[in-house]
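Minimal example, chain plus S-adenosyl-L-homocysteine.
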Amino acid sequence: MAKPAEAGDGARSSLIGLSREELAAEMEGIGAPPFRARQLWHWIYHRGAKDFAAMTSLAKDFREELGQRFPVERPATSRAQASLDGTRKWLLKFADGNEAKCVHIPEEDRGALCVSSQVGCTLTCKFCHTGTQPLVRNLSAAEIVGQVMLARDELGEWPSPKEGRLLSNIVLMGMGEPLFNYDNVAKAIRIIMDNEGIAISRRRITLSTAGVVPAIRRCGEELGVKLAVSLHAVTDELRDEIVPLNKKYPIAELLAACRDYPGSSQARRITFEYVMLKGVNDTPAEARQLIKLLSGIPAKVNLIPFNPWPGAPYECSTPGAIAKFAEVLTKAGFIAPVRTPRGQDIMAACGQLRTESLKARRSQAKAAAAAV
Ligand code: SAH
């Protein structure tokens, strides 16, 4: 018997989120020949079919059988918002009622989708709104791929266009720490990269991490996607405070993993994210220290003006302080753009994503399970 799919609804297993091998095993399980799996892959990930009825190259009886056994739906959308700057944010509701967000950020000739990997987060970074929402659970591969499919639906980008895509890049910079959900994230990335489907290449996928050192190596070796590292401080003392994961993997270890990151080169630099916090981490002396730390790493620094959220304990650095910080880096030969906040008016900017999902207490979870 084929391994059950990871659907999240517990009832029928979705075909979305299965690897090619698992999809083939599901087909074998119902007595269909292996080439059916390839046809289905094409329909689901290249054509974006939302139901089996649309898959006209399959026999009608077979489509009906599939329809009875498997769903291919997207996650439901509880809310969709559009920013004045064109950024769009979707609040997704999964089968168990939990919610996560994804954000599309259009640029002139391309666009990135910011994808979530967890509901909530364990990291508790002091400046991050998502960090105030305790981890509820990991997202499954189906739920991660589902975000991309939903965005493609909304942008009208099926079948997968060869060029001129509105959704050309993926950034794993939404809710959660992707490297704490490595297996599901890796599986989702492999599906997204597959050339006969969604076909977004590894060069256009960036995974952002707060620095889960052992998983950084795996990520480079197994997936080869671009890496972004949320650094934000140049001393362990400060980083321990604002990115508590630093207590486990301090700056020197983190940067050693970056130095070794497979595939990084001057053409494929590692991005270091640095949130600009007024009076906390924004002096020219800290910029000079950053230059020292990054020596020997093909690096680019993204300076992110702090995005405020209700009750945040920080303020954004002044434009003057940000410009000065950027100038020190640029003079030392670094590419150091200041990131323009996008989608601030709909709370879609970096660190502003949060949902109302809460982890049910064990007693509540039991009661809910008993009621089913
Ligand atoms: N956990 C991963 C993925 C989240 S990416 C990581 O830490 O990299 C989200 C990015 O936005 C991170 O660089 C994060 O540090 C940054 N960020 C969080 N809160 C922010 C805020 N209020 N203003 C600006 N950037 C913020």
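DSSP finds eleven helices and eleven strands in the chain. The pocket of S-adenosyl-L-homocysteine is lined by residues 123, 125, 127-128, 173, 177, 208-210, 230, 273, 275, 304, 306-307, 350-351 (CB under 6 Å).
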